[in-house]
């Protein structure tokens, strides 16, 4: 016992989840305790992947068994029909054929592919293992996993990883293997071999993406982290383009744009090998982004990639932005479609809201970045195993917000930012949300920014809401050429909201306005003023707390 204590005197034991590692006091091998959020989220998604993979396999087996049974039934029916046509089938033989068909129907429910189609435990590859803590947690906490391969090209890291594998006992020594090798070479030498590939580099993952998309099996899961947020968020646009193939624009949505740039880059690498990705979860947490995508092979499906990518036009004066898709589909005579360049541009030379120019960025991934079914399943699984997640509070808050996002709306805007553009106090998020909903549009928050707003409302509706807000909350006079002044100088075009969404006290005034507008002898100018007054009054009522549902 004294000998063991003597060997461990230079180490300290760190526990995370169910795994323990020996960390040398000199801290020669990289270890970041803050990444517990990352590791917990990865374990949660990995558990969902194993469950979904099993469901998909069972569904595929059932489909094949049903098809196989139908073919056999058809074959026997045809044979019986031929016998009957020759007049050689008597009543006893007919009864016998019916019994055969019944027996075959029962056998068709039993999987005839049980041996050849047995689902094997998923193989996992961690490309940059360091201490091996992530692989150890996978081995000890995730049930149903097969072999886990932990790689690193640093000799000290591999020695640490081997030591930690032994320290965690038989449950890990039988599952986890570690090698001193360049992860890129190892992945290239094992194409489509691993069901799960985990990339968690310190910095950019760009140099690993090409080999990673080749190493993932069909339907497998690629988990990828990027920590070079300054590059992805627009501080060095030229560096971002050289690494990811996209040029970022600056805006409050920059962290979501970083997610979409990374997804577009992974898709680009996958397309070179007739493969494509399906994002199941994409999150921004702490100081990094993390994406979880499934990888499939299909030469026909990759033709739809341009439909999932867009350029972004960001106004330099106000917060408005617009997306320009790369392609469009054109119907063909045989009920098929062909792909053609998209019509554009979607914006004029100058912003229609404030009159300023646009910056152009992209291309970025403009398709959904989450699969809501996966998100809900993952969240449910996390809540059912609360005690097994050290970062339970963090990951449940992120997953809950993600589950409420509008997944078909790319990017978002900040409520404080648009209020800053017109130099007014910001309306509360509840009031703003009510106004957008009453106007007939959808709205949600975003996990990326607590003040972020996703909505399918066009920008003229957003600015109309702000115009009416400013009317009830006057501001100081601003410079004539400022974006806010130009925006507020325009009259609202938003129509009145439905009467059932407005206070009853306001209905009398609205009816008086209507009768005033229809009186004979009123000029066109007075009618226009009355209509404008109704729109302003209705919108302002929508911004008041008393109208909230």
Sum up the structure in keywords.
549 residues; alpha/beta; Phenylalanyl-tRNA Synthetase, Chain B, domain 1; 3-stranded antiparallel sheet; 44% helix
Short account of what is shown:
GO terms for molecular function: metal ion binding; tRNA (guanine(26)-N2)-dimethyltransferase activity; tRNA binding. By secondary structure, the chain is of the alpha/beta class.
Give your account of this protein's structure:
The protein is of the alpha/beta class. It has a domain at 412-489: N2,N2-dimethylguanosine tRNA methyltransferase, C-terminal domain (Phenylalanyl-tRNA Synthetase, Chain B, domain 1, 2-Layer Sandwich). The chain has 19 helices and 17 strands. It has helices at 2-7, 36-85, 91-107, 133-141, 155-167, 170-173, 183-189, 206-215, 229-232, 237-244, 254-271, 372-384, 392-403, 415-421, 429-438, 459-472, 483-488, 507-518, 524-542, and strands spanning 11-16, 19-24, 124-126, 148-152, 176-180, 194-199, 216-226, 275-285, 288-297, 309-315, 321-325, 327-331, 337-341, 358-365, 413-414, 443-444, 452-455. A seven-stranded mixed β-sheet has the order 5-4-3-6-7-9-8, with helices on both faces. The protein has a three-stranded antiparallel β-sheet with strand order 11-10-14. The protein has a three-stranded antiparallel β-sheet with strand order 15-17-16. Helix 2 (36-85) packs antiparallel against helix 3, helix 7 packs parallel to helix 8 and helix 18 (507-518) packs antiparallel against helix 19. It is globular. The model is unreliable at 84-88, 104-116 and 496-549 (pLDDT under 50).
